Amino acid sequence: MEPMMTMMKGNEALGEAAIRAGCRFFFGYPITPQSELPAYMARRMPEVGGTFLQAESELAAVNMLLGASAAGVRAMTSSSSPGFSLKQEGISYMIGSQLPCVVVNIMRGGPGLGNIQPSQADYFQVVKGGGHGDYRMITLAPSTVQELVDLTMLAFDLADAYRNPVALLGDGLLGQTMEPVSFPPMREPADDKDWALTGARGRAKRVITSLELNPEGLEALNLKLQAKFAAMEAKETRWEEYRCDDAELVVVAYGTSARIARAAVDAARSTGLKVGLYRPITVWPFPHEGLARLADRGVRQFLDVEMSSGQMVEDVKLAVLGRARVDFYGRLGGMVPTPREILSEIQKLMGGEA
Amino acid sequence: MKLLAGMPQAMSPVVTHYCPGCSHGVLHRIVAELIDELNLRERTVGVASVGCSVLAYNYFETDFVQAPHGRAPAVATGIKRARPELFVFTYQGDGDMAAIGTSEIIHAAARGEKITAIMYNNTIYGMTGGQMSPTTLMGAVTATTPYGRREENGQPYRMAELLAQMPGSAYVARTHVADVANIVKTKRAIKKAFEAQLNGLGFSMVEVLGNCPTNWGVTPAEANRYVLGDMVAYFPLGEFKDVTKEVLAGVRP
Ligand SMILES: Cc1ncc(C[n+]2csc(CCOP(=O)(O)OP(=O)(O)O)c2C)c(N)n1
Ligand code: SF4
Description:
The structure holds two protein chains of two kinds. Chain A is 41% helix and 20% strand. Chain A is an alpha/beta fold. Chain A has two domains: 6-235, 3-Layer(aba) Sandwich (Rossmann fold), CATH 3.40.50.970; 239-350, 3-Layer(aba) Sandwich (Rossmann fold). Chain A is globular, with a radius of gyration of 21 Å. The N and C termini of chain A lie far apart (49 Å). By secondary structure, chain B is an alpha/beta fold. Chain B is 36% helix and 17% strand. Chain B contains nine helices and seven strands. In chain B, helix 1 (24-37) crosses helix 6 (180-198) and helix 3 packs across helix 4 (102-110). Chain B is globular and about 50 Å long. The complex binds thiamine diphosphate (TPP) and iron/sulfur cluster. Chain B: Keywords: Oxidoreductase.
């Protein structure tokens, strides 16, 4: 049977995908532009025998997530920028405690209270750590509603496989976009974690903690975590290349900006300019490899496009490592670039007409 | 041969890190004895908070998780919601519960979360070296109130009374462990709190007045006299909420 296509908003599709991935516990706190997600969970969770709980704050929500995850169930929380700042405490503890979970950031304009327009200005915060201590988490950056669904399913599997939180990084535009989408079949929640706290019936007690007072012990834990992060880098790096084969200039963008940049690439191609798009799907681990290959192949110009002041551009420069020129175009504060703006940047860089 | 006294099964056979004369040990033992008596060892998850008792997980033979400072009630909520068949308790200090974690404890109580919170109130931050806590008595000298706690630092407030007001709390009491009679009473109160959870009646909490000879800079005997005198005078003992009888009798819905 063909999978059914339905029209759905990004935020709601994300919720449905989580449920289909076997997530039965959702802890949330309202913030625009992700509020449809908790609302969807509030409606849907009781139908599948799950639990939706509106916490008193993002701090409480993320720590409820910590508890549920320690009890061995698939659980999720979501927020938007200012709320995500508050979640960083719990994320650091969950990484230290090796607890799997999925955390969603549907970004909006900042800093501070900012506004409720789409933005990508939390790249540093989510991708480079944000919370305290040496840590990493796989961060998936979908650019369509369908991909939001697919990557949400993947996020839960990766979280369990590595016993580490996994982030879904989107923005207000993706969350609010309504598109046709198809869902994979419902998966039953698994209950087989051999480290979970379930009451010490017939076995020795289990303890989950991020505390290790002895520095040698804590260094050992950190080395174990670092080895895990290295395995993630080796196995979980994902990206997409679009019209890059003969490209002379490659636009680098993720999420919503990538979607807009794709239209700009098509427009440039139709005027005869050899332009491609490189789209990181995991923004951590950052896909250095494909970019390095393009630079080796002779691409002399990269144009990084973001809805921020150029946070990912640092990773692009590292990947290219002086072999090519890296320019940046970005809009700030909740402004979304248009394909026309990006095209005109491309034309400027390639010496064509603006 | 009949064993007349020994370690509770729920207590790990290890030496604790607590200072000599500190009553954290007494309170741990009470909790462990009750876990044994109510046959809860194989269905308990304890939540350790940040403070001197952060290592509580080393002392109980039950599953345990360690929560960020103040967030134990939220962590406990997550566990209990995920596995309602578990018996879940938090063990927190006054700094953990009444300062950084006020929001989490009030809302867990308001929601009637079926967990039990135990607060060890020694009116001071023990672990970080004796700073003022929200329950520090007026005039008391601490590392951060070197001239004594004054008006400008605010006045100590009463956690048990506060939580008793929450619609979701089923049992809330304050006791102390500075003499034998009250150790027995504390055990009785914590037993009621545990039973409130086991009967699904809602949130339960026992605030236990304890000492901190080290940071108060006194002997254990003097420390207990301070509990019996100044502390009890400001923090009245008693049960501030107890719906167990009415609810179990079916009086309330
Ligand atoms: C977020 C955060 N802030 C501060 C601390 C430092 N800290 C550790 S223990 C503690 C106070 C604990 O006091 P209390 O809860 O009264 O417990 P006690 O040590 O007296 O038993 C503080 C502030 C921390 N670990 N985490
Ligand atoms: S510092 Fe105080 S509360 Fe902490 S173990 Fe020592 S006596 Fe007990």
